[in-house]
User: What shape does this take?
Amino acid sequence: MSSLDQQLTALEDLDIQDLRQRWREFYPGEAPGLMSRELLRLAIGYKLQEQVLGGLGRRAQLALTAFKTGSKMGRASITPAPKSGTKFIREWQGAVHEVLTLEDGRFAYRGKTYKSLTLIARLITGTHQSGPRFFGLRKPGDAKGSDHG
Assistant: This one.
């Protein structure tokens, strides 16, 4: 059992006062008075995992911010990352272009790898284009922003 697993398991045995004390190790101020024992345990457990495994990625943070603010623009601008093995086929000026999504999130195009669809769209068109829009992941009217590509 890893140290993280042991710490998470140990949280299950703490009473609410002990959990409130642990809360102060991770959050500023006191835990909200009406917060249940279970929610305290989960919040502390998240912070323990965050320390060991890292926090949320930029895309998840943007999605949460959009959700919290009710921003339609924020929600529309977040394009889901294509799954590994996804193949994009696009015709441009009479030539067919194929792009394959790799396991590491990069993209293969004509024997080379690229970190984004936008770089590939620029190679194909010679102009700056939104890669996700060029390859059909987003509609032309969608808001600009964090476009996975």
Summary: The longest strand covers residues 95-101. The radius of gyration is 22 Å. The longest helix spans residues 37-53.
